[in-house]
Amino acid sequence: MRPPVTPKERSTPEPTPARDGATTPGSTAETASQSSSPTSSESSSAAPEPVTDLSDLSPVRPGRGVLSWPGLPLLAALALWAYAVRHTDVSRLDDYGLVTALHPAFWAGLAVLTAGFWCTVRDPRRPGAWAAAYVLGLLVMERATQTVLYPTPLYAWAWKHDAVIDHLLTAGGLQTADQVGDMAVYDQWPGFFAAQAALVRLLGVESSAMYMAWWPLVSSLMLLLPLLVIYRTFTEDRRLIWTAVWLFYVANWVGQDYFSPQSVAYALHVGVLAVVLRRFGRSTGRGRPRQAVWTVVITLLITAIVISHQLTPGMLVVCLVALCLSRRYRDWVPVVTTVVIFLAWCLTAALPFLSAAMPDMIRSVGDVGANVETGYGATPTGTGAIATSWAARLLSGSVLLLAAVGVLRQRVLRHRARPLLLIAAAPLPMFAASSYGSEMIFRVLLFMLPGAAFFAAAAILPKVRTLAADAAAQEAGEAGDRRNAPVAVRRRAGTWIPLAALLGGTLAFVPAYSGKDRINYFPPQEVALVRQLFDQAPEGSLVVAANRNYPLAYDSYGSVEHYWFLDDARSHVDRIVRDPAATLASDMAGVERPARAYFLLTQGQLANSEMNGQLTREQLERIQESVAASPRFRLVAQNGAGRLYVLKQAGGAER
């Protein structure tokens, strides 16, 4: 870290060499293209106006008060976390999910970790490795806690993806809609599943369920390197870099880091942006051979995205187009490459699905209200569900508000890091493109985060000024005026206000991310009950359940049909509530021997229905009691997590 620069030294700034030999955004050459001209034309004739970096500024509280050993809070936090994990009982979760189940030592550890990170990262004398260690500690506490606490993997969708991989391994290849129905959409975007099938065989494990519980931590770690590359493109100051990384992770509560194609596609998306921002700028000074290599790299990354996920390529296109609005990144090669690969896939492998879905996709264009739709099955119900939902909204709103403050407050960064501002704003038009099953609002927030976290971090760190303005301020006596100000007050504000912001966001992540674990966690008893069902169900059987929120819900989907009655029209659901056994028996009567018709009701279905405003626990229990009392059904299996019934078939004895 270089010493503070005097006004005399600042009058003739030298370019700062980057580690790879190119000039950094803080250099004289690049400043000309990013921070010298606030106009949209970004005229190259304007004289560059060198800027300070946060590293040019004195620490918030130098010298006294800095921790003598920055690893102490980290070790204390991890010790508290380990103690909390050993003393947390998840056998009975309430509507607040993991929030109320966690031992108080967890919250203390998270507070100690955040305070230790802030005290360490704002001290310029500390190497960046300490900040990295704290971020890794954060990921362990916030992404690995569920994995360690729960004996089975979370999320019905993760279990669904495990079933797709198992089917791919069993079938030995891709299949059409005639063979597997609407599940063929996964065969038309098979990149993630094919890679996981290969990994299962390579590891020699029974299925991806053996490791998918660790996927949130793995996918979060995949984002770390591209995030660092992106932020280091615009600043060399580690305080801003690591604070932005910290805010990115605590604001990423959306839950797309689970075992899914979008988790990998999103990491690849951020990776493409990192390469484009770092290697395709006009001031990078790279020759054509080197540029060709990076073009091949992004082509491979884009291809992996396109064959794995439907939405991410569209988000990547709008981000790359937005970058072209900046003079420095007016390179159409990444945009054209993405569009060509995307269209090629859509017009070949994905054409069957798109042909059937296109009418609905066209009708949804402009339907912004669908992104905030409420009503039957779409409204959090109960104190816990509402509280955790508001925690998530407040967390995202606070980070976006901080980002806006950073943009307004940090005038120099606003022009210097304009590409990040463009990336943060680019996903917003996707609100009007599609509701994406009422999830587009969450996906837009996710894709805004890399840019928003950077400016949110800038809002709570010292103000960046141009070198000329800094020198003029000192010559005008501003420094003397500042010395006459109440130093203690300034120091307290500069320390405690940013720390409070970081701590509030870090603590709010837990209810936002884990507040619905009552829905997402399936105890071993529930897994065993559902596995028993599919072990005995003959080919062509039908499974009827309230909703799809149970483990292994898609197991054997190539040979077993499913009907989730809460997905049906509300009028039919009302008929089931009025006369459960007779209505369900009628719905299940079309199954012929040797196939069977099963009715399954589990703990996960009850939680999902109750907390999302579908049917109450009392209504679902009356349905189960009606089925149990009906002579047309026979109990097959039961345990503390649910019950399984089979519809008796006419013309033969029941087994």
Short description:
With 655 residues, this protein is mainly alpha-helical. It is built from 31 helices and five strands.
Helices and strands in order:
Elements: H1 7-10, H2 28-34, H3 71-86, H4 98-101, H5 104-121, H6 128-143, H7 145-149, H8 156-171, H9 177-180, H10 184-188, H11 191-203, H12 215-232, H13 238-251, H14 261-279, H15 288-306, H16 312-323, H17 333-346, H18 351-364, H19 383-409, H20 411-416, H21 418-425, H22 440-459, H23 467-475, H24 478-484, H25 487-514, H26 517-520, H27 524-536, E1 542-545, E2 561-564, H28 570-578, H29 580-588, E3 597-602, H30 603-611, H31 617-629, E4 633-639, E5 642-647
Parallel strand pairs: 1-2, 1-3
Antiparallel strand pairs: 3-5, 4-5
In words, what does this structure look like?
The chain is mainly alpha-helical. Helix content is 58%, strand content 4%. The protein is built from 31 helices and 5 strands. The protein has a 5-stranded mixed beta sheet with strand order 2-1-3-5-4, with helices on both faces. A hairpin with a 2-residue loop joins strand 4 (633-639) and strand 5. The protein starts with 6 loop residues before the first helix and ends in an 8-residue tail after the last strand. Mean pLDDT is 81; it is low at 1-48 and 59-67.
Q: How far apart are the termini?
A: 78 Å
Strand content: under 5%
Characterize the overall form.
Answer: globular
Count of extended strands: 5
pLDDT < 50 stretches? 1-48, 59-67
Structural class: mainly alpha
Identify the strand order in the major beta sheet: 2-1-3-5-4
- Give average pLDDT, whole number: 81
Work out the helicity level: 55-70%
The biggest sheet, with number of strands, parallel, antiparallel or mixed sense and barrel status, is: 5 strands, mixed
